[in-house]
Amino acid sequence: MPDVKTMTPMAAANAVRAGSALLIDVREPDEFRAERIPLAVSAPLSCLPGLLAEMTLGDERPIIFQCQKGGRSARACALAIERIGGRPIYNLAGGIEDWKAAGLPVAGAPSNAPAGIPFFRRMQIVVGTLVFLSVLVGYAGYGAGFAVAGFFGAMLALASAAG
User: Fold this and answer.
1) Is 67 a catalytic residue?
2) What pLDDT, on the 0 to 100 scale, is given for residue 141?
3) Residue 35 and residue 10: Cα distance in Å, rounded?
């Protein structure tokens, strides 16, 4: 993976406000709708390869990728460096969480209001429960329960690896 440069929330805010940088939020659409950084553009990481291939960015403004904490946006930076190298690419240090901690504004749901459980977290709860129940069925004497638990575990690992 290429060496990804980071930018602090304050530096990113100044660059985006001045119009000298483009901020791209790579979180999923439900996360973006719930809470986002003003002036950020939504381009989910799952769609980013296709979007980068289709994008026509006429100027050479730096691109700052942002997610919740910085992990997904680091992957987006690496992908962008491969696809559109030569342009300055940055990862927003700490994502939207550090942005809020720096006292910078967000749009969407008020930060003190519960936004509900995000979709991916609900999926993890459901799949984890199914794995647990399948293992219990296996210990109850039905060997197929272990196979079902293995299947769910493998699918969870595959989903995690695919992002």
Assistant:
1) yes
2) 92
3) 18
Residue 92's φ and ψ, nearest 5 degrees, are -70, 115
Name the residue with tokens 């003003």: 38
Residue range 60-67: mean pLDDT, rounded: 91
pLDDT band with cut points at 50, 70 and 90 for residue 25: very high
> Per-residue b/e over 6-41, b at no fewer than 16 CB within 10 Å?
bbebeebbebbeeeebbbbbbbbeebbebbbbeebe
Residue 96: the pLDDT is 95
**pLDDT surpassing 80 at residue 149:** yes
**Alpha carbon distance 156, 133 (integer Å):** 16
3-state secondary structure of 140: coil
Catalytic residue (choose from 63, 67, 74, 77): 67
Q: Backbone dihedral region of 19: left (phi > 0), alpha (psi from -120 to 50 degrees) or beta?
A: left
Q: How far apart are CA 77 and CA 89, in angstroms?
A: 6
